[in-house]
Amino acid sequence: MSYGNQGDGGYGAQPPGGGYGQQPPSGGGYGQQPPSGGGYGQQPPSGGGYGQQPPSGGGYGGGYGQQPPSGGGYGQQPPGGYGGGYGGGPGGNPPDNHLVPAILTTLFCCLPLGVVSIVKSSQVNQKWQIGDFAGAQQASEEAKTWWKRSLIIGAVGYGLLIIAYVLFFVIFAASMSSYSSY
């Protein structure tokens, strides 16, 4: 068997009666349009069709692929962005995740509330990457709320601790002065 021989029916030979790319002579092949004038690839005589733009009107004054005159459209971001001016949605910056204050309040203030704040702050970037912009904004606000709660409870706790130490030393000093007077 010879692979390069075209005349003996090798791989390059065309079958008798028409090749693969030819249309049958009957006029009704796959790539030909019927003679009625309405096929799939032809435009209707009304002037419409998929490939043509409507002549006028149609809402925004133009065709399907044109942008509205206001400068909006699908590819443009609305003014102010998503989430009230935090940098917007796709293509913008994600909202602040408040990770640094969350870690600091976890270490120095209130551990349980600080851990919740760290969890919420880690959800901000995850939700932003999957496209949940409202969820990312909400997680940012919750992270801020939890680290502020941790800070307040920690400050109150440290304040009470300082008051307790002062009272302890005042009572201890008073009791020592009463023993020394005898």
Order of helices and strands: HHH
Mean pLDDT: 73
**Alpha carbon gyration radius:** 39 Å
Quaternary organisation of the protein chains: single chain
Give the beta-strand count: 0
Total helical elements: 3
* Structural class by helix and strand composition: mainly alpha
Distance between the termini: 127 Å
Helix content: 40-55%
Low-confidence stretches: 58-63, 76-87
Overview of the molecule:
With 182 residues, the chain is mostly helical. The protein has a domain at 99-180. It contains 3 helices and no strands. It has helices spanning 99-108, 111-130, 133-180. Helix 1 packs antiparallel against helix 2 (111-130) and helix 2 (111-130) runs antiparallel to helix 3. The protein is rod-shaped, with a radius of gyration of 39 Å. 15% of the residues are buried. The model is unreliable at 58-63 and 76-87 (pLDDT under 50).
